[in-house]
Specification:
This protein is mostly helical and 318 residues long. The protein has 15 helices and no strands.
Length: 318
């Protein structure tokens, strides 16, 4: 039924909403100037926890696939995102990141056989424009390294999302285990970078420990489980159009908790970005195309998807 599909979308949307709280938690609870250590503390403890809970390890080709997905979605994405945020003025990193839906539309055409539609492209443009109105602050000199890092981070996450949809999951493995594999692989990739760039871990007080606990559990373990679960059941385009909810949440949290102001121009941008998110769900749900990569799913997943198609009108998640 349509209600089941809406519930699935809303649950998946909790992931970018949670990620939108990262800035407030980082600035208010965590030690400063430790972006790689923060990325490591988000990924590795959450991944090891999920491995302990599921007690399922990759087998065969999935050792390589998990490493690739973990690098794209976590290990490369986190450092590149932090690098761009530190080198670019205002919310420029978020603006560059908001082109993610357009990248996913293009990659879905190449890897999933899903033909891009004018509606999806226009919706992606509106979403990026809305986000720019919300987060873009006073102009400043653009740093080439920062821009390239932001583009690379967006491309990394977009490719990881589409490949996650294409490869599906192995027989008998649920999204929780798949999430644990990727978080662990990504965390292990970040660990040596954090040690080389930032040195030994900082001393943590109770406030910082609580902040890292929130980031590892709610902001990462649960959020990425919901995200990857959604990728398995909706289209890649539907999932990526939920991404603008992250900067929108950050703006609302900044206003409600940190005392920041919201101008009429920002409110207009929020309305545009949120509207594009909704349109992205409706348009993608109606125009979902079965991809050739979907055939790589297990027979159990195939049966689940057939039931999902009956109750959602053919909506598949990337």
């Amino acid at each position: 039924m349509a209600s089941n599909r809406v519930a699935l979308i809303l649950l998946t949307a909790l992931a970018p909403v949670s990620w939108g709280t990262t800035y407030a938690v980082t600035t208010e609870f965590l030690p400063p100037d430790r972006p790689l250590f923060t990325g490591l503390m988000r990924a590795l403890p959450a991944g090891l926890l999920l491995l302990a809970v599921t007690r399922v390890l990759p087998r065969g080709a999935w050792w390589v696939k998990s490493a690739v997905l973990g690098a794209l979605n976590i290990g490369a994405f986190f450092p590149l995102l932090f690098l761009s945020a530190y080198r670019l003025p205002g919310g420029m990193a978020a603006v560059v990141g908001s082109v993610g839906p357009l990248l996913v539309v293009g990659l879905s055409a190449l890897l999933l056989g899903q033909r891009p539609t004018v509606r999806n492209v226009l919706t992606g443009v509106v979403a990026a424009f809305g986000v720019s109105l919300v987060v873009l602050k006073a102009a400043g000199a653009l740093d080439l390294v920062g821009v390239l890092a932001a583009l690379a981070a967006t491309a990394s996450m977009s490719a990881g999302t589409v490949l996650t949809k294409r490869w599906g999951r192995p027989d008998g493995v649920g999204p929780l285990a798949l999430t644990g594999w990727q978080l662990t692989a990504g965390g292990l990739l970040i660990a040596p970078l954090a040690l080389l760039a930032e040195g030994a871990p900082p001393a943590l007080d109770g406030r910082a420990a609580a902040g890292y606990l929130y980031l590892a559990l709610a902001n990462t373990a649960v959020a990425y489980w919901l995200w990857f679960r959604g990728i398995g059941r909706l289209t890649a385009t539907q999932v990526t159009f939920l991404g603008p909810l992250s900067p929108l949440t950050a703006a609302v949290v900044g206003w409600a908790v940190l005392g920041q102001t919201l101008t009429p121009l920002q409110l207009t941008g929020m309305a545009l970005a949120f509207g594009a998110t909704v349109v992205g769900q409706v348009g993608a749900g109606r125009g979902a195309v079965r991809s050739s990569g979907a055939r790589l799913f297990s027979s159990a997943e195939e049966n689940h998807r057939k039931v999902s198609m009956d109750v959602t009108g053919g909506a598949l998640r990337r």
